[in-house]
Amino acid sequence: MSRLVLDRRRFAGLAAAASFAPLLRAAPAGGQATQTLRILTIKTDGVKTLLWAQQQNLFAAHGLAIDLVTTGSSAASLTALIGGSADIAAGSLFPTFAAVAHGVPVKFIAPEVLYHGDHADSLLLVKADSPIRTARDLNGKIIGVDSVKDLYTLATRAWVDNGGGDGASLKPIELPPPEFLAALVAGRIDAGVFNTPFASIALAGGKTRLLGKPLDAIAPRFLLSAWIASADFIQRNPQAVKSYQTVIAQAARYTNAHQDETVDLVATFTGQEPSQVRGAIRATSAVAVTLPEMQRPLDFAYTYKLIDRPLDLQAMLAPGFALAARDIT
After folding, report:
1. Which of 77, 155, 205, 307 has the fewest CB atoms within 10 Å, i.e. is most exposed?
2. Poorest-pLDDT segment among 101-110, 138-147, 197-206
């Protein structure tokens, strides 16, 4: 199995090589200083909560301004965060688990996106005429993922194992999500884990077909991604973190019930046509999550040796992280 080796020096070194937008601070009309938060994310439907909150000036109402920068993967966002290039990052839980296991002081401050197996927005696709029909047929094949050491690779390995194949034989390669379809059609990859809106776009074109839902190998329902910050930032900025948590929860609750109002925002952000976003499987934003919905991916990370020791989940949660007593969205 692949293992993600993360340490402070590697994080800082990679982050130092990155280029990010400068921090801009503004003052509202009343003269009260506004704290600007540098936010990193990737171009997915999951960031619609932040985009909508920005549009509605919810952050400004809490004395915050957002300086948003995109990266190519969750792992890259976390790397830059630890290197000091950002205050908060959105991304998969798995790089954060690996970081904590290696002593990097980061915490989850708010949930972002929930995975539902019956509403899966991460799909394993192959060419429409591909001879690949079963998990076993993927043995030794090249798989396109956004990060070779993130949950999509591990989940696909597990999905292949569960289907009677050899997940360790897969050959994952990193690609930007917008390039998956062209790479698959050209035969540069044999299969790819497509996320929304790219999965729906690829299937609508008739050049691909669904092979499986690899994230089902983790659990039928779990927290897929979260907002993350360093322990130091959380300690030094408790009010900013609390305000961010409040705004994100409010935005998640609203956008889940009013998906159509986020179509143009997501289309502009991801570079897609509004019709493509509207016809895609939309991500389910998490308002609050149960501990089991986070423990399931953590247990999976340990089983598949992404981390080499059990971790205390609650120790990874920042004060005010939205926990629910039962499953809610």
Report:
1. 205
2. 197-206
CATH topology of 8-116+222-316 equal to that of 118-217?
Answer: yes
CB 322 within 8 A of CB 293: no
Please choose, from the candidates 89, 82, 87, the residue with its C-alpha nearest in 3D space to the C-alpha of residue 42.
89
Long-range contacts, 75-78 (Cβ 8 Å, 24+): 75/4, 75/147, 75/149, 75/150, 76/14, 76/18, 76/147, 77/40, 77/41, 77/42, 78/11, 78/106, 78/228
Q: Look up residue 305 and give its two tokens.
A: 């040796």
Residue 72 near residue 42 (C-beta atoms within 8 A):
yes
Q: Please, are residues 248 and 109 in contact by the beta-carbon 8 Å criterion?
A: no
At 260-274, the pLDDT tens digits run 999 999 999 988 889
Residue 146: how many CB atoms within 10 A of its CB?
A: 25
Model pTM score: 0.83
Question: So where are the chain's domains?
Answer: 8-116+222-316, 118-217
305: left (phi over 0), alpha (psi -120 to 50) or beta: left
Choose from 107-121, 123-137, 150-164, 199-213 the range with maximum mean pLDDT.
123-137
C-alpha–C-alpha distance, residues 198 and 13, integer Å: 32
Whether the Cβ atoms of residue 289 and residue 248 lie closer than 8 Å to each other: no
Other beta carbons within 10 angstroms of residue 57's beta carbon come to: 9
For domain 118-217, the CATH architecture is 3-Layer(aba) Sandwich (3.40)
Contact assessment for residue 198 and residue 125, using Cβ atoms and an 8 Å cutoff: no
CA distance 21 to 310: 37
For 8-116+222-316, CATH gives 3.40.190.10
